[in-house]
Amino acid sequence: MGYKRKILHLTFQDEPELEFYIRSVSVRRALRLMRLAGEMGADGKSEEQSQKDVEELFGAFAERVVSWTLVEDEPDEDGNEVPVPVSLESLMDWDFSDALPWVLAWIQRATSIAVPTTAPAQQETPAGAPIEASIPMASPSGM
User: Fold this and answer.
1) How far apart are CA 57 and CA 63, in angstroms?
2) What is the number of structural domains in the chain?
3) Domain that holds residue 45
């Protein structure tokens, strides 16, 4: 059995009922999305190019979503919540001020790594002493 690309679980502290299960992206795609996100609203871009960039960002997000907990504003005739279908069309119909943070949170999560605070137990030095994980830091002199 091989290793598959991760599925990220996005939650939001201020919206506890909101969840996304979304696939991660390749390094190449992540770099492109990070660049596009960083250029949003940049001066010098035509309105047409800005629109294409936003559509690419939202499209990349929508194509990677496995599931989400978005529901329609109105319940069905029986009073049940109606799930919003997972699609770019559904995402593009959502409020921009809500959807943009979801996209940016996904990009941030897909491009961040957790730095271990301890080395795995099986890694040991030749003398048998455990290896300590460390992050190189500058000395007080800046070196």
Assistant:
1) 10
2) 1
3) 7-110
